[in-house]
Write a structure and sequence with these properties.
The complex is a heterotrimer of chains A (234), B (388) and C (288). With 234 residues, chain A is an alpha/beta fold. In chain A, 38% of the residues lie in helices and 26% in strands. Chain A is globular, with a radius of gyration of 17 Å. Chain C contains 11 helices and 2 strands. The chains are: A alpha/beta (234), B mainly alpha (388), C mainly alpha (288).
């Protein structure tokens, strides 16, 4: 579904990504792991187009999207839930969701919104409330719901577990797994909480200082003690 | 005073017009051995500035004595712009506070001067000037205190409101301040007989009243430049730059941000006070129309052109205001515009200039110029080191 | 007592026009976090284009239309060409650029239209009613501002375009990720502000003599009104405008007609020192 080849990105003199290659297949969760500053967030931002890569290529369903403008990504079927969740706090829950739905086209907006409310009951009871009144877990639901409304083929998730209670994290992760298994969604999941991520992922990619140091089946990675200690902190 | 060794031997002793690297800072970098006449320029700041100022005054005398009356009046006009632009350079270039209110501060100095000259005949002009400076500085304390809490557009907006609002006082206190028509400035300073005789003795020319006032104005303008240039190089200058560049670091270093900013504001207000006093005496009329927001914008253009943070640039900027504007206006008339229309040509060009320079130098004018200056200095030092 | 009523009524009317102008400043600030000091001059320019149209065609309404359309276009052009490059740099750059726009447009107007005062016809009769010293022209101003305000509210709160603009203003990067063409929204914000500014410019001119400097004081009042209201609040701009309008007429009437601007300055200083975020700001802490 999503192919990244030899991606390099720099911020001035600093190389954030150094020849990163990975693939995100349909119906699978690919976890990107590593310490702070390893380049995980930059990877997602470069894929979705917020950052321009210096070299390398990105292809979605075979089509090159390396330099496609970020605003068109949603139409192409890529949704990116950014670091910090990206809730627009000044807007209401419903307005946030409508934004997610806006560029998909088609007529069933109300219906699609209702589906999301069914999926996330806490959002249902807060439709007209300003988004800044939501708790961390509710915000995560909001942004995932918002992303899903664009019916993406690829979902980029940046540290969804950040600041959330373990129970909530488990809920969200299991929801993602279910979606992937039932709809064939491809997910690229960036996480610092490597243990939880590897528990639902199919493949794990470990980054260190902008380079890929390991790509393997998630369970095998979880069992590789040396690797875990060196790069993943557990 | 030390001259580094190595001046003799290998280096060429011929007079070298290019300013030697190292002379500006007083440090001796490799390759900065002084050649020729530059050996006589003092290393220490104070004497060097004094020398420059004296030379400048001599230059002014030579100029004034050799040009037409019209040019003399232009030079006199430049004399009252210089302290205003220099003070604003300190405030904006070195301390980073933008002010659109300095035209209004000049008005305070000018009106104070006019009133004092009217009420107290026979008082020496220097005293009148001092009073004008004190009054303007007091206003500067008030405005500066409010301004020190504001940044960027808020500061610009507040000083804009000040500039647009203050002339209203002149109209409100019509009786004392002359209302819309303004006040005629009387009891202008005149040269004492002794000075007139001495002047005739030295130059062979008459010291007319107009020329005397021009010299008087330039004397004070250069005095202000002298004081400012030393202040800028002192620890106050460093303190102001620190506050401009990195507030957090400055605070951690123990600098009281508010006090530093207010001080810079007061100093620049004092300069504007001098400028206003000189303006009163040179133009002989103080009215609200002389102190519109356009004046403050002109001052801003002058410091942007001159290169924010450079006092030499302040002089250049002042020259620009005085000589460029009539030049442009004449060209505009030549192109077929009416006199009234042509008066808009210079502001139009200034407006375009302000826009263009921000687009062409996006790091900010300060940033670009300092960057280029530092780069050049580093390149020079490198070349000198490589040459040995 | 009668004077008080007259002053109050006039204050509300003047305040409504200040509110319209303050709204334009808020529109721009919300879109690009810049205070456009040139807004008044741009509005003045549109005002003069309206005058020329009225003089050429005799139709006041056509003049208004020309002003609004030209304001829209000028706003878009200024944002694209002049302001876009400095939107992300140090804020002093934007200040200087907008000041350049201010000076430039005033000078350009002077060259094209002359510096002397010219009469601008009123929309309606300038003759007051018997009971209160208010004219149909004044009522029109009030009505026009109310309508314009309603249009703004409907646009922003009820349309999907308005939602996109708010998203672009409050969460630029996230909005881009969601598919909003943020760059176009910024330009649209400036264009709308230009159109509204032109409306305010025509309303202020209506029934009075104008010169290229006629909007200068309005910039000060509008700025103070916007700051008072909290620079990102539409409601705040309206309240701020009314406060400034009333202050201006009361000071003019009871003290002196030379002092309203200083009164505005006093209000500004108090607001910035006591409650810098303004009365209605939704941002948590405003760094002024």
């Amino acid at each position: 579904m999503l192919e990244v080849k030899d991606l390099t990105a720099t911020y001035g003199p600093v190389t954030a990504l150094d020849g990163v290659s990975l693939s995100v297949p349909q119906g699978r969760i690919t976890a990107v792991l590593g310490a702070n500053g390893a380049g995980k967030t930059t990877l997602l931002r470069t894929i979705s187009g917020l950052v321009r890569p210096k070299s390398g290529s990105i292809a979605l369903e075979g089509q090159d999207i390396t330099r496609t403008p970020v605003e068109t990504m949603v139409r192409r079927g890529m949704a990116h839930v950014p670091e910090g969740r990206g809730v627009i706090a000044e807007l209401t829950v419903e307005e946030n969701l409508r934004l997610g739905r806006m560029f998909r086209g088609g007529k069933d907006e109300a219906q699609d919104l209702e589906e999301v409310y069914r999926l996330f009951p806490p959002l249902d009871s807060r439709r007209k409330r300003s988004a800044h009144t939501l708790s961390g877990g509710e915000r995560q639901m909001l942004v995932v719901g918002r992303a899903l409304l664009s019916k993406p083929k690829v979902l980029l998730l940046d540290e969804p577990s950040l600041g959330l209670a373990p129970l909530v994290v488990a809920q969200i992760f299991s929801l993602v797994r279910e979606l992937v298994d039932t709809t064939g969604l491809a997910v690229l999941l960036v996480e610092q909480n490597a243990k939880s991520a590897l528990s639902i992922a199919d493949t794990g990619v470990v980054l260190n200082l902008g380079k890929v140091v390991a790509t393997d089946d998630a369970q095998r990675l979880a069992q590789d003690e040396q690797l875990r200690h060196a790069y993943l902190g557990f | 005073m030390t001259t580094p060794d190595g001046t003799t031997a290998a280096t060429d002793e011929s007079t070298d017009d290019a300013k030697q690297p190292g002379a500006a800072t007083g440090l001796t970098l490799p390759g900065s051995e002084k050649k020729g006449v530059w050996r006589f320029v003092p290393e220490k700041t104070l004497p060097r500035h004094l020398l420059l100022v004296l030379l400048a005054f001599v230059g002014v005398v030579l100029l004034v004595e050799s040009v037409s009356d019209f040019r003399v009046s232009q030079l006199a006009t430049m004399a009252y712009y210089v302290p205003a632009v220099a003070g604003l350079t300190l405030l904006t270039g070195i301390n980073g506070q933008i002010s659109l209110g300095h035209g209004a501060l000049m008005a305070v100095g000018a009106y104070t001067t006019a009133l004092m000259l009217e009420r107290y005949e026979g008082v020496p002009f220097t005293l009148v000037l001092v009073v004008a400076v004190v009054v303007t500085s007091l206003v500067g304390v008030l405005v500066g205190a409010a301004a020190s809490r504001l940044h960027g557009p808020y500061l610009a907006g507040a000083t804009l409101a000040f500039a647009v609002g203050l002339p209203g006082l002149a109209i409100y206190f019509e009786h004392t301040l002359g209302g819309e028509e303004g006040l005629r400035v009387r009891n202008l300073p005149e040269a004492p007989g002794l000075v007139q005789d001495a002047f005739f003795f030295i130059t062979g020319n008459d010291l007319t009243a107009g020329k005397y006032r021009a010299y008087l104005a330039w004397f004070f303008a250069l005095l202000v430049l002298f004081l400012l240039s030393n202040l800028v190089r002192s620890r106050y200058g460093r303190m102001w730059r620190a506050v401009r560049d990195d507030e957090v670091a400055a605070e951690l270093a123990g600098i009281d941000l508010g006090r530093a900013r207010i001080l810079a504001f007061v100093v620049s207000a004092a300069c504007a006070g001098v400028a206003g006093a000189l303006l009163a005496v040179i133009t002989r009329l103080v009215a609200p129309t002389s102190f519109t927001i356009v004046l403050s914008i002109f001052l801003l253009v002058a410091i942007v052109v001159g290169g924010l943070g450079s006092l030499t640039g302040a002089v250049l900027g002042s020259a620009l205001l005085v000589f460029f504007i009539p030049f442009v206006t004449d060209r505009a008339v030549g192109l077929g515009l009416s006199q009234v229309q042509a008066a808009n040509a210079a502001p139009l060009i200034f407006g375009l200039f302000l826009v263009v320079i921000m687009l062409a130098a996006p790091q900010g004018v300060v940033g670009t110029i300092r960057l280029r200056h530092l780069t050049r200095k580093a390149e020079k030092a490198m070349r000198a080191a490589q040459a040995r | 007592m009668e004077q008080f009523v007259t002053l109050t009524v006039n204050g509300v009317i003047l305040g409504s026009v200040f509110a319209a102008f303050a709204l334009t400043l808020v529109l721009i600030f919300r879109a690009t976090r810049i205070i456009n000091f040139g807004q008044g001059a741009m509005a003045m320019f549109s005002g003069f284009l309206a005058l020329r149209t009225i003089e050429a065609t005799g139709s006041w309404w056509l003049g208004l239309l020309v002003a609004i359309v030209s304001g829209f276009v000028i706003g878009a052009l200024v944002e694209r060409v002049i302001v876009r490059p400095v939107e992300s740099g140090p804020e002093i750059n934007a200040v200087i650029v907008t000041l350049g726009v201010f000076v430039g447009f005033v000078a350009l107007a002077g060259i094209l239209f002359g510096n002397q005062f010219r009469g601008f016809p009123g929309a309606f009769s300038l003759q007051g009613f018997d009971l209160v010293a208010i004219t149909p022209n004044d009522l029109f101003k009030l009505g026009a501002v109310v309508v314009a305000l309603l249009v703004l509210v409907v646009l922003f709160q009820l349309t999907s375009l308005g939602l996109q603009m708010r998203a672009a203003a409050f969460g630029q990067e996230v909005a881009r990720l969601l598919g909003v063409r943020v760059s176009n929204m910024l330009t649209l914000g400036w264009a709308l502000a230009g159109a509204f500014g032109a409306l305010a410019g025509v309303l202020i001119a209506s029934g009075s003599p104008i010169s290229p400097n006629y909007m200068d004081a309005v910039v000060v009042f509008g700025f103070v009104a916007a700051v008072l209201g909290g620079l990102d609040s539409f409601v705040g701009a309206v309240v701020g405008g009314l406060v400034l309008g009333l202050t201006s007429t009361y000071v003019s009437g009871y003290v002196s007609s030379a002092l309203p601007t200083l009164a505005a300055l006093a209000i500004l200083v108090v607001v910035l020192l006591v409650r810098p975020g303004g009365l209605f700001s939704s941002s948590v802490a405003r760094k002024v």
